[in-house]
Specification:
mainly alpha; Aldehyde Ferredoxin Oxidoreductase Protein, subunit A, domain 2; 3-stranded antiparallel beta sheet; 3 strands
């Protein structure tokens, strides 16, 4: 078995090079091109400019500081990110994976990778699932815009900031109830 593993590992590493280079967000632009990327609470088919801004390639060029390998993994999907300045300052932490970028990003039409990374960090810090959080926020944003959710939310909050505000608010609410 060890001989078989030694033979197949180089093949796996070569065939998954983009996943090693860009993590699980490597395929975002391809999935968008194929129309298989969750956008605007599943109501929009393509989002070329936005998908490019939150892609693995953009993450690697902007906020990526390293990567990590899970035990016995030869690919190294894990991302380490850092944002040194700006409104989404973030010390080195685990970077967002595909599901997080999709749920806190494209589902809400958020194309700011730094805000997505900060939302990821907030959810991780408070033990909140990023997929469920993003989907709930996307639903709330749609319900608000369709006037099904009767709240007064300033229009500027229906952008990058809403993700962080809602992640933080949800965290505090859950912690106060000790769920």
């Amino acid at each position: 078995m060890n001989k078989s593993l030694k033979e197949i590992i180089p093949v796996i590493v070569e065939k998954t090079r983009s996943m090693s280079d860009y993590g699980t967000v490597a395929g975002i632009t391809t999935l968008n091109f194929l129309g298989d990327f969750p956008i605007k609470n599943w109501q929009q088919g393509l989002w070329d400019e936005g998908a490019e801004k939150i892609s693995g390639e953009t993450l690697a060029k902007t906020i990526l500081t390293g990567k990590y390998y899970c035990k016995s993994c030869v690919i190294g999907f894990g991302r380490v990110v850092e944002i040194k300045e700006g409104k989404y300052t973030l010390v080195q932490s685990a970077g967002p994976e595909y599901e997080t970028v999709a749920s806190l990003g494209s589902l809400c039409l958020i194309d700011d990778l730094e805000s997505i990374a900060k939302g990821n960090e907030l959810c991780n810090r408070y033990g909140i699932d990023t997929i469920s959080t993003g989907e709930a926020i996307a639903f709330a944003m749609e319900a608000y815009k369709e006037e099904l959710l009767m709240l007064r939310i300033p229009e500027e909050y229906l952008s990058n900031g809403v993700i962080l505000m809602l992640c933080w608010s949800l965290s505090i609410k859950l912690l106060s109830k000790k769920v």
